[in-house]
Amino acid sequence: MRSALAALGFSACTLAALAFGACGADDAQVDDGKAEAGSDSSVIDDSGWPGSDANPDAEPPADPVPRAPCTTGQCWSAPALSSFCGSSSVSEDFSTGKYNVHQYALSLPAGEMVDLTASVTGGAFNPALIVNAVDGTTLYDGEIGVSGAVKVSAVSSGRTGNVARVGLVAASVTAVSVFVTSWSVVDGGFSPAMPTDASYSLTTDVECEPPPPGTLLSPPNFDAQKTSNGYFMLPDSEPPGLYVKKGDACSWGNKLLIDVIYTVATHWKPLYPKLSPLSVKDLNENVAACTTNHDTHDDGTHVDIVAGCATDINCADKAPKIALAKLFIDTGVACGILNNDTAVHQTVNAYFAQKTNYAPWKSQFMRSVTGHVAHFHVRVKKPDGTCN
Ligand SMILES: [Zn+2]
Question: What pTM value is reported for the model?
Fold first, then answer.
């Protein structure tokens, strides 16, 4: 991650600025002389943030222009972006000619800088990044951002170049929508079309180290004393609403499996609130009171998950399914998912290859097995750390 940042030209000052506002909201402001009135760096510090009264001589910073890209624009709802620690990129294009805006769901983690960069990889256009809250409030209009519960650091608007970049820090876990388009589209009220040869990469960089398996989230109400046949019980969702259980008798598994379910459910909730809570079906059949005949659910590493269109192969929108599969991969300990939606296999398996360095369950992370049409059958690593 660090080398990737260096390759992008990050300076220590830029990173510090993004995290703490120490270099002002916009490096370009300093460069183009707008901030020259203050040679004292503290003036530059404070003048970048709306609502600051530390420098009464400076013009008050403007608020972002409200932008509703999908009201007029033709929005394609893309798979949600990763918000786990580290760097992750997606590549997209406007080749179908049907859309002029791409919309991404993103869950901002609490207190971590998330750096978003859209870079032109094909076609002639100036990229624009817009960030809205889920209620439609514009947090970043492409040039100016807010500084409240979500603090925006405008780095590069992209208006005259090939790269649009912005930093976001949220006080608490916050779901936002990220829009990628061009300035021609923005300035045309979202009516103009995108060139069909336009393509870009969108990189999410979260300024923390990826959690190793030992630091997976764990249910705060997990009870290590509550065991059966050597397995632990997935407790009721705490806080409520992350997941629902089939029943206590069917909810015994390895601690790692319980942590994976809890971790994924926690990140899923703000990403797709309408597809939450996750419905957690059988963990382990090897308990008398859980009578489902589930041949493979026999060692505490398997679970069935149902989440509406995120797991149902008949839904046309594949974005939630890809997003949910990515969350499992992001845990770093998921071995495989059985689900028969072949339309998403390539994307999911490529992401697994990109993010991990271990062999998946039976050679392919996501694969089809008869009957897996409306749920994810997920397997995590065995106690020996392997998948097979
Ligand atoms: Zn299953």
Answer: 0.55
